[in-house]
Structure formats: C-alpha cells, structure tokens
C-alpha cells in the first residue's frame, strides 16, 4: 500500500479486529499504537474504536497501514488476537494539520 504523509484528503485504510472477550466486545486496530476499545456489543465496540483512532492519532503522523492480507494467522497469534475475530476496515482521512476523521467500513 502506498503511504503518503501530511497530504490533506489522503485516506489510509486500517484493519480493525473485533472479538468477544468474556462479557464484552473488544476492537483493536493493531497498526495504531494503543488503539483499543471495548463495549457491551460488537456495534458499540466498533463505534468506540473510531473515537480511539481519532484520539490515538491526535497530533500524530499517520502510521503505516498494513493490508488485510498482512494479518495472517501467524501474525494474529503473535498479536494475541483470536483467529475468528471479525474484520473491519477503518478509513482514516487526513484533514490537514495532523487532524484525522475515521469511519468504519464493514
């Protein structure tokens, strides 16, 4: 995937994994350091991870976005993510001045 930095309007696609963990759902975007959110339902966890993406990227450069194919079973095991996690794409648009907007695509 071609990565451009600090170009207003640039959109990167990050992979989010959502899984049930005991009594809640957890959403993780491995390419964005510290980007994790939990909530009562899968839908709520997906909404919460969008806020987490924006908070984690606040005043930061966009990190490299790996493609879905990068996240093999071996990589998921190394990351401690379940192999049966739901996969979503999070579009992150560079709104300029290191400000980003995120939306979830299923």
Automatic annotation (TrEMBL):
A Pfam family of this chain: HicB_lk_antitox
Gene3D superfamilies: 3.30.160.250
SUPFAM superfamilies: TTHA1013/TTHA0281-like (SSF143100)
Annotated transmembrane regions: none
InterPro entries: HicB-like, TTHA1013/TTHA0281-like
Domain HicB-like antitoxin of toxin-antitoxin system per the UniProt entry, residue ranges: 18-73
Protein name from the UniProt record: HicB-like antitoxin of toxin-antitoxin system domain-containing protein
Organism: Sulfurimonas marina
